[in-house]
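Subject: Protein record for review, amino acid sequence with backbone structure tokens
Concerning: The relation between a protein's sequence and the shape of its backbone.
How to read it: Take the token row as a discrete description of the fold.
Enclosed: The protein record, placed directly beneath this head.
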Amino acid sequence: MGHRNFRYYFLGQVVSILGTWIQQVAMSWLVYRLTGSVALLGVTTFAALVPMLVVGPLAGAWIDRHDKRRLLILVQGLLALQALALGVLTMLDLVGPSLLVLMSVMLGVLNAFDTPLRQSQINSFVGSREDLPNALALNAMAFNSGRFLGPPLAGLLLGLTSEAFCFVLNAVSFAALAFGVWRIRVEASPRASGSTASVFREGLGYVWDAYAIRTLILILAVANLTASSYAVLLPVFAKDVFSGDARMLGMLWGAAGAGAFVGTVFLATRKNLPGLVTVVVSGAAIGALALLVFSYSRFLPVSLLAMAMVGLGISIGNVATNMLLQTLAPDHLRGRVVSFFSSTRFGFDAIGGLLAGLLAARVGAQRAMLIEGLVLAVFAVWALRTRGRLRADVARRI
């Protein structure tokens, strides 16, 4: 926080992320309230996230060829327009399943550019490679503080106002980050030369040839394919298992956010980068165990604790992976490496959410979460066995 540029970015990020979480909870509640379809919850989540998997890697190559700071300000404006349009359409009762899916796709395409733009510039905002891991942990802390505070606030707002109000509020929140980035004074980062296709191939070759990076991304993919599916199923648990309303959904989301926030506070104190490999693997194991407990529990306090542990496991795994990847990546490849991280993180989250929704429609939400937990538990055992080699390769590359 001693870096002026990072302070401007961080404060704007906090406001923007809070608005984003409010919209996400409002969106899931709107879908389930209008349709009662758990499958559509999975479809809309998939539509919002799958562009990260499809567009994300190419977006990383494209943004490495342009001025990232100006692009980030532009993308904030487009995200604000998307949220405002969704709010107005909801206010006029013009939303239906098809339109909700379309708006989710638009959001996903914009986020495919927004996420690597935000992440890849943090290094230039702090101006010190030694401070980069801590800056990334603080950035994740901002994300998870919004994840902790946003859902309960969204539940309160939904009880007092409407989904449309939440969407409009999110539109306003993007101005905070745009203003913060506008105030930043930093030299433009070097731009990659060549066509977008050749720049993409260069980044893909680097990721594939480096054992540590390839393995970290594999762990990231499986963990988010399974553990992150809870997001799609929470409205079902809130309404059908615990007989609650939007406030109950906000409590469950908030519990996951609280666990995630604790995880990022823990990571902000870590200085031993090879030791983060153990954190990544432990995150998968914690997430698996917590999913299994949550799928069986009918006692709300136990379920809230289990959901907090799910959030903790996902958070420490994802953030520690990001810290390692960005530290290992050369400066000229960072945008592309970050895009592979974000496309895997959110793309496999999208696939997992779709599968969880479809599975829950056939066997029920509780059994679906049980299956997800069992799959992740088996994978976590494999990851534990590869930890030694992975840690050695990370230590060699630092």
Q: What stands out?
A: Residues 365-397 form the longest helix (33 residues).
